[in-house]
Amino acid sequence: MAPNHLQLLLDKSCQKSGGMNALFCIIHLYSFRLLMILSLPRAVFRLALKAFTDQKRRFFPHLEDEVLSHLHDGEPGVTKKPRLSASNGELKEESLSEILKNLENEVPNMKIFTYRHLDWSKRALSLASLMDDEFVDPSKELNLQNMGKSRSSALTTSIDQVAVIELLVPSIFRAIVSLHPAGSTDPDAVAFFSTTEGGSYLHARGTSMHHVFKHVKEHADKALQYFISVEPSKALSLFLRWIASYQTLFTKVCSKCRRLLMMDKSLALLLPPVHRPYHQTSNVGPDLQEAYHIGCSSYEA
Q1: Strand 187-193 to 269-271 pairing
Q2: Angle, to 10 degrees, between the axis of helix 22-38 and the axis of helix 42-59?
Q3: Of 64, 114, 195, 283, whose CB has the highest number of CB atoms within 10 Å?
Q4: What is the rounded CA–CA span in Å between residue 180 and residue 160?
Q5: Is the sign of the CA dihedral 216, 218, 219, 222 positive or negative?
Q6: Which domain of life is it from (predicted)?
Q7: Per-residue confidence in pLDDT tens, the chain, 301 aa
Q8: SS3 (DSSP) at 49
Q9: Which pTM value belongs to this model?
């Protein structure tokens, strides 16, 4: 049989085998082509060797993955995708689960829950019981938060079905962020509420009954659009960290006037600094974020 015909026969046989007889095919391909390659000049030898390597990758791509996996962790058949580092040395967050896990580690006092749309609607309605009392007992609030935590853990929402993220800082705020499409890292709406609010209006496009959170939501809408337009690939990660800076909403003094409360003349109400600059979030941690009253902001953002 002519060499070219033999080569074609071996190639077709190996391709049809689907890797079942991978070792047999490699031995035959290698022995046949090695004989041909050794008789070639050096320059042509290198080209032929490269062609042979390309053929191996074409027919048996899984073999190379197994070898690399074996070298890295001693577990053949399991490939691990390396986590890339950003130019500033920080790990790139490529998935929703990575973003939420890192946020949980960075802001341990902020509770993070995930839901499908229908599950969140049920959760919002369950919070409405807090609104039945004129005075909210702190112990009742804590019990409801703990109940919500256990209920959320029991949902076992698949990460590719997550459509709503709840960020809860007890006694401070509850932020609702929606993702579109579900399971993506693309935020499309946000709302802030008191931890004592509950009902069907608690959703990412809803509005709080409290003026302080109405102002925060207006500012958050601008922040969300900023992150989406400036750094769309990191918008969710940066936005969630920016939201975390509001854990000091009622304790951090204004970075300009150095006061905690200022009169809002249009509402005749004393309000805390409700603005958090979002241009500096990538460089400043949530606990170091500046805060400004509406009238003290040096720029509208």
Answers
A1: unpaired
A2: 170
A3: 114
A4: 11
A5: positive
A6: Eukaryota
A7: 554 554 555 455 555 555 445 545 555 555 555 555 555 565 555 566 556 665 555 555 444 444 334 333 443 433 333 343 444 445 466 799 999 999 999 999 999 999 999 999 999 999 987 655 444 454 444 555 554 444 444 345 799 999 999 999 999 999 999 999 999 999 999 999 999 999 999 999 999 999 999 999 999 999 999 999 999 999 999 999 999 999 999 999 999 999 999 998 888 899 999 999 998 655 556 567 899 999 898 655 4
A8: helix
A9: 0.65
Backbone angles phi, psi at 166, to 5 degrees: -105, 125
Measure Cα distances from 198 to 170, 174, 208, 210 in Å.
14, 10, 10, 12
For tokens 């040395």, name the residue. Answer: 89
How many helical (H) and strand (E) elements, i.e. helices and strands, does the chain have?
9, 6
273, exposed or middle or buried, with CB in 10 Å at 0-12, 13-18, 19+?
buried
Q: What is the CA radius of gyration of the chain?
A: 29
